Every structure is written in structure tokens, then in C-alpha cells.
Amino acid sequence: MRKPTPTLYIVIPCYNEEEVLPETTKQLKVKISQLIRSKKITKASKILFVDDGSSDQTRQLIRQFSKRSSRCAGVFLSRNYGHQNALLAGLIEAKNHADVVISMDADLQDDINVICQMLTEYRNGSEIVYGVRSTRKKDTWFKRITAEGFYKFMRLMGVDIIFNHADYRLTSRKVLNELEKYHEVNLFLRGIFPLIGFQSSTVYYERQERFAGKSKYPLMKMLNFAWNGISSFSVKPLRIIAVLGFLITVLSTGILLYSIIVNMLGQTVEGWTFIVCSIWLMGGMQTLFLGIIGEYIGKIYSEAKSRPRYSIAEIINDKS
Questions:
Q1: Which residues, in sequence order, are bridge partners of residue 129?
Q2: φ and ψ at 103, to 5 degrees?
Q3: Are 76 and 41 spatial neighbours (Cβ–Cβ below 8 Å)?
Q4: Are 73 and 34 in contact (CB under 8 A)?
Q5: Angle, helix 21-37 to helix 58-68, in steps of 10 degrees
Q6: Do the Cβ atoms of 52 and 14 come closer than 8 Å?
Q7: C-alpha–C-alpha distance, residues 188 and 45, integer Å
Q8: Residues 189-204, buried b or exposed e (16+ Cβ, 10 A)?
Q9: pLDDT truncated to tens, each residue of the chain (320 aa)?
Q10: Which residues, other chains included, contact 258 with Cβ-Cβ below 8 Å and sequence gap of 6+?
Q11: 97 contacts 320 by C-beta, under 8 angstroms
């Protein structure tokens, strides 16, 4: 049985997006109007911008769009909380008014033309529809290798993640009600949604060049994001440390026995280089292991405090 025509909210986290926001709003308003005319969504559907403490004119632009059009609404966070927290804030707010919510970035790299396909999948029974890149031909070789390596490494570490899927997805209100029960402070939504379950499907699209502005995820931020995902969903790094520790212990025991035997046979030779290298190697590995363990302890610390993941300063024009 097909589902009734849904009310759609498109949630867009924004951080210093003044260059691209006017064009994004223009294109999405046209798309929503088309979907309403074709009776894919109801007239109460909206674009919900979430301002993540921007320091440029992003907040003012959202106010202008919301004032001029009933199709636009805004959520203003009290400060910058980060992309994942801003996205969560938008999803939780949107589910109070919408049957389905589509999340996407503000840079127009996600193809809005597949929204119709997402809605069709929803009407056919899917509660989550993942937007997945069909190709990475437009990426530089470095970006392609690191991005694909990220997904493969996440899977290797035991994280259930959709390959080449970022945060372009459709989720039903039922799914978002379950998402609200997840209270972790260290958010990695790409890993949480597969955990929630429910029937899901995939639509493929070709990711476009950024329309304007600069990426908010440089290399170091991407590496930090990847580590957050791994440490939030997998204990394999700790197990690897345990295995390496055991192997080093076995190796050290073997070297100790060898040294004793050689000494008893009177065949000892100077081994200054070997000793120094061993000391530095062991010291470096121990520091690395302690650092990884410390990261996990730090996550326990932040989760135990259970501070709010975001604070909303203001909401405008979001009533259906």
C-alpha cells in the first residue's frame, strides 16, 4: 500500500554560506513548487535553514528569505556547534512538522533532481533513502583516494556505513523519532542511521562542483571527522593495541632469551644501535597507544557530562 502524499522539509545546515545561499534558495524553491504541482508533496512543505553560528551575512539572508516566502524557515543556533550538531538540530525540529525530511548541504553539490526519486522510494515503503555518489571522476586524485579510503577504512574498523554516502538522505518521521532516542554527544550521523534500521533504499547521483564559496571541510577537519566516526562506533583500535602489545611482549621475551643465551656462551657484542632504535621504537609505540586510549577516555568523559549538543536561540517561520 502506497503512503499518502507527505509534507517535506529540506534541512540545510549553514555556516558562512552567504555566497551560495541565494542560488540554493532559488533552486530549491523552484523544485518544491514543481513537486507540489505534481502532487508529490503537500503545500505545507518548506526549506529549513539551520544557521550554525555564522560570522558572515548568512543569518541575515535566512531572515530575508523567511520573511519574503512561506516556503523558507530558519533555526538559529546560539553559537557554532559543528555540522553534525547543526544537522541534528534541524532534523529534530523538522520532524515536528513534516512527514519526511531530506538533509543536504548548502553548496548545491548534491543533485536536487533526485529528490523526486527519493520521494518515490519513500512512497514505495522505504523509511530511509540514501543519496549515494555514482562516480568520483570530478574529484582530484588525492580527494578520490582519501575519500574512498575513508569509507573502506571505516568498514575495516567495523563501522556500518554506506559507501560514498555523506549526509544527503531522506528520512521519515518514524526514523527521526528513533534518532531522538540516541543521546550520544560525539555525533556521527552517517553511522547512526544504519544502526536505527527500518527499510532503506539507495538513489545514485553525480555530485556537482561547489556553486560558490569554500569547503568547510579541509583535510585536517576531514581526518578529525573520520577519527570521530571510528572511535564513536568501533573498539577495534583498542583490540589492535592489545594484539600488538601481546606480539611485542612475545618478541621482547624472545630477544631476552636470546641475549641470555648469547651472554652465557660468551659471544656478546656491542649493540648500541639496536638498543637505541628499540628504545625509540617502543617509546613511540607506547605514546601512540596511550594517545588512542586517551581519545576513548576523553569520549567517555564528554559523554558522561551529557551536555546539550546544541542550543537554539531562535526559530522563525517554521509553522505549517
A1: 170, 201
A2: -105, 140
A3: no
A4: no
A5: 30
A6: yes
A7: 27
A8: bbbbbbebeeebbbbe
A9: 667 889 999 999 999 998 899 999 999 999 999 999 999 999 999 999 999 989 999 999 999 999 999 899 999 999 998 888 999 999 999 999 999 999 999 888 888 999 999 999 999 889 999 998 877 666 667 767 776 777 777 777 777 778 778 889 999 999 999 999 988 877 888 888 888 889 999 999 887 766 555 655 556 666 676 666 666 666 677 677 777 776 776 676 666 666 667 666 665 556 655 665 667 667 667 767 777 777 777 777 777 777 788 889 999 876 65
A10: none
A11: yes
Task: Specify whether the CB–CB gap between 136 and 148 falls below 8 A.
Answer: yes
The backbone torsions φ and ψ at residue 131, rounded to the nearest 5 degrees and listed phi first, read -90, 120
Backbone angles phi, psi at 197, to 5 degrees: 90, -145
Q: How far apart are CA 50 and CA 89, in angstroms?
A: 8
The Cβ-side half-sphere exposure at 207, using a 13 Å CA radius, reads 20
Helix residue spans in the chain (DSSP H): 21-37, 58-68, 83-94, 115-123, 141-156, 173-179, 189-196, 219-233, 236-264, 272-305
- For residues 26 and 63, is the Cβ–Cβ distance under 8 A? no
Assigned C-alpha cell, 261 = 643465551
Give CA torsion, residues 240, 246, 252, 255, to 10 deg. Answer: -100
Cell numbers for 241, please give them.
593495541
